[in-house]
Amino acid sequence: MPARPSVTEAELEAHLRGICFKTGPPRRIGVEIEWLVHDARNPRCPVGPVRHREAAAALRALPLRSALTFEPGGQLELSSLPATSLTACIEAVSADLALVRPAMRELGLGMAGHGHNPWHPPRRVLTDPRYNAMEAYFDRWGPAGRSMMCGTASVQVCVDAGHEEPGPLGLGRRWRLAHLLGAVLVAAFANSPVSEGCPTGYRSTRQVVWSQMDPARTLAPPEGPDPRTAWAGYVLDAPVMCVRSDDGPWDAPEGLTFRDWVRTGAPRPPTEEDLDYHVTTLFPPVRPRGHLELRMIDAQPGDGGWIVPLAVTAALFDDPEAAESAYRVVKPLAETAGARPAPRNPLWRHATRGALTDPELHAAALACFTIAQEALPRLGASAEVTGAVARFTERYVAPGRCPADDLLDGAYADGSYADRSYADEAAPAAPPDRPPVPAPPTGSPAAPDAAYEDELTPGKDSL
To answer: What's the mean pLDDT in 356-378?
Structure first.
């Protein structure tokens, strides 16, 4: 709970500017990986709260180096410590997973890498005050908040903010690169085309869910010459999700921004700790936490599926030559993106629906993956890691596919989604020729299409 006296608006803005981007030579890399937890024998059978608690107790007894947490729907998350190299990061997380997976199997539980739960509607298993307040807040915007909280999973890559000075490793360049390259990463790693057993018409349903939520806390900050100023304004002008309390619910007056809270001092004067907590309730696609947290990548299939997005992102951000080349590749995408913030602009919407079937995104992805493959040896990546990136490029990027296409191939090949390759993390078989992207079937769970389009400005952009 708050422990320090309340502070002024100017002090809070200075605090934000001081902590949001910690600049210097890029040296560290990190990853946060989420999985959907399911019954190992029948993933369509929901896992109840008791089994989740047993799993949490068993995993917390393990000597893990990564931080272990659980999301509101029971999704398991491992967050690595900041590593000094890509290799060190991969080795540390892989060692933790070598402990976690057998422990889960002993409990009859599996870990599935899907960006959005393909089997079940949202079902919350955690009931602490934070998630009670979060659910109540997002319910004002419709059902997408519950779907995000309880039914989504991702691979989040964390890179240093970069140098203060201009250049390929400078803060301003990396901030812009993250928002343009982000759409390419969405498309290349899209892996959530199904909800409640039915294709939704999107290759990344997870991204659609994020696009339907409160725009004041899920869209990117406005562009400008100074990322610090943009972020500080974004944070202070975002609505307060909850006011923490030692007793009673963590609610907040509807429409109260943090700036309003500072100026009015009601329902109680806020503190610096309140501001820091408020930042944890903001979910833009790129979130500055001293470092840059890239939050747009769907969870990936396979025991080591998370390694490819981590390696590609690290190469494109932390190798100077690759960073410069990647920026030149993605810079023209800004014209397609237009003035709207991610993820609601046309570029990100193309990535969400069509993924690499979009010619512009396909060309950008192929160039970026080629650049990454050339850079990985310079970062000291092992032959195993560079080989994994090469195989992903050959299997998906070169032919204009993404992991979601494997799921759609299976769904439309035999008319049954839930019985094929979803029980656990086995690598998918070689794909057949991909059919045209089908429209959502009549009677499927409501695809987020109408709400997604209608939330945008009049004259809806076609995808």
So the answer is: 98
